[in-house]
Amino acid sequence: MVRVTYYTDPACPWSWAAEPALRRLLMEFGDDVRITYVMAGMERELRDPLHLLEASLEAAAWSAMPVDPRIWLQRPPSSTYPACQAVKAAQEQGFEGAFLRVLREAIMCRRRPMDTAAALVDAAREVEGLDVERFEIDLRSHAIVEAFAADLERAGGRELPTFVLEDEGNLHSGKVAPDALAPARSRPIADALAALGTAAAAEVAACCDLPLARAQAELWQLASQWRARPEPVGGFGDLWSVA
After folding, report:
1. In a shared domain, residues 48 and 106
2. Does the residue 170 lie in any domain?
3. Is 159 helix (H, G, I), strand (E, B) or coil?
4. What is d(CA 169, CA 133) in angstroms, rounded to the nearest whole number?
5. I need a surface site. Which of 74, 93, 130, 151 has the fewest CB within 10 A?
6. What is the per-residue DSSP string for 45-58?
7. Average pLDDT across the chain, whole number
8. Is residue 189 part of a domain?
């Protein structure tokens, strides 16, 4: 069993850049990995969105993850705290990982700031199996406020993202989940895409142990066969899904 404590924020550009490593870890270990998500509350009040614009472009260049940086110019979130609290509300039903992914795609790829209760409830409807009515009640509860406050205290100003992994008693800490813990196996791209749902080419490459260029070429080949569908992301890459 691999146990991971993951310090992050839904709007953190470098957490989005770390998604290939995280999804590789999840795909390789499956039910043998347990992730505790700690919401670190990156921006209580976002006063300077331009530093996140720069971080988004740098993280995208490093990771090849698609981004639409116009969100930081046109309608940045006023705060990342509401999205963090929403992850804690989804955690009440055991859907925090799936919901966090929906939030990341919404912010990084679709320019949705995700800083209001209405927007967060709409996002909850995208998570299969999540009871949206219960989620909305939890989102407005004092218990979730307290849970998020506990996460803020636990995070204690850590750099984001930070993974703390425990594997057979050994601790590993860093910004990206160590690849040595999850040596990817070769698998058909179509199978990986079906398992991942929506994914970037960099994530498919990581999960299939392929060079990025080959993963991109095979995804476009699937698209030519009407088996995969690209969603352009602001001129900075694509999100892929099964057609």
Report:
1. yes
2. no
3. coil
4. 40
5. 74
6. S-S-THHHHHHHHH
7. 93
8. yes
